[in-house]
Amino acid sequence: MLNVNQERELAYVVLIDDILPIAGADRVEVAQVGGWRIMVRKGQFKPGDPAVYFEIDSKVPETKTFEFLAQKHYKVKTQKYFKGTVISQGLLMSADDFGWIVDNFSLIDDKGKRHIANDSDTMFLTKQLGVTYYEAEDNKRKASSADKYQKMAQRMGKKFAKFPYRNLMRHTWGKKLLYLFYGRKGDKKNGWPEWVKKTDEERVQNMPWILEDKNPWIATEKIDGTSTTFTMKRGKKGKNDVYVCSRNVVFDTPDKACYYDKNVYFEMFEKYNIKDVLTQLLNENPKTEWVTIQGETYGEGVQKRDYSLKGRDFMAFNLIFSDRGRVGTVEMRSILTAKCVPCVPILDPNFILPDTVEDLLNMATGNSVVDGKPREGIVFRSLDGERSFKAVSNEFLLKYHG
Fold this sequence. Notes:
With 402 residues, this protein is α+β, with helices and mostly antiparallel strands.
C-alpha cells in the first residue's frame, strides 16, 4: 500500500473483510482483506477484526516473534497450497502475536499507541516493526530520497523536530517559508526535484473499489525493470536544469555509483538522446516550466526477468508537463515515438474493468509483447492519464518471486 508520500508500506493495520472456508481443510481457512486473500489458522480471525498485514516481497526481522518464518528466510511471498487450489498472498498476524491489545476495532501497541486501520497517521507499521524489502536491491532502489527541504530539516536536526517547525514542514508553503530563512546551496545538491512525483503504482488488491468504474481504461503491459525518470526545468539565460534519476536517487554524473555495475539510467539517457528530446519538448511548449519522462529500464542484469535481451532498453509510461499535467497514454505514445523514444505496449485502448479482483488478476497473466514470455502484469490508466493502478500476475510472482 502507498502512504501519503506515495511510498510503499510493507506492514500496516487492516480490518478483516471476510473469512472463507477451504474445501477439505480442517485447520486453516482464508482471510480476505480488500483484494488480498491470506491463509490463516482456523478461528484466528473473524470479519471486522483488526490485524497486522505484511505485504508480499517483504522481509520481517529475524526475531522470536517471526521465527515461524525462519525456514522461509523470513520472506513473505506469494504461495500455492492444496495442490494449487489456494493462492495466499501476504501474512496476517493478530494483536496477541505482539502482546498488543484489541480495542474498538483498533490495536494498542506495547507503548500504549493506538493504531487504526485506514488512518494514515497510525496504521503504517513498516518502520516500527523493522520490516524491509526481501531483495537487497529493492531496499536501495526504493529507499526514501531527500529533496532540498528534507536535507534542510536533516541538517537542522532537533530544532526542526519541535513546534512550530515540525508543523510547517507538513505544508508546501511552510517548507518554502522555512527555506527562505534556513536553506543553503548545499541542500540543493543531488536533491530530489520537488516537482517530480515518484513512480509506484498501487495494486488493485489495495483498491478493489476501483472496479466499480466502468468507464474505458487504457491497458498497458507492466514491464519488470527499474523505474527511471528524466526531467528538465527551464533555467536562467537559456541554461536548463536536467536531472537523471532512479526511483529515488538523482545522478549528476554518469560515473556516480548506483546499484547496478553500470549506471543504467545514464545509459538510457544517452541511448535515446533524452536531453535533446526534453529540450525539444520545452521549445515546443513555451508555457511549460518543466517536462518529465518516466519509464522502466529493463533487460540484462536489471531484474530476474531479462526479456531475452543482451543489454538493456527503455520504455516510457509517463509524459508530464508543468502546465498540462500527465498526458494521456495514446497522446504520450504519439509524441515520444515521433522522437524515437519507445513506450510501453498498449494492450487495449478501451478496456472495461471486470467485476472482481480475481478476474482482473487472471487477465494480468499472459505473454509479453516484448519477447513472448510471461509478462509481469498490466497497468491501467484513465484516458486522461491522471489515474492509474496495476494488476500483477500471480503466476509471474510464483515463477520469479515465489
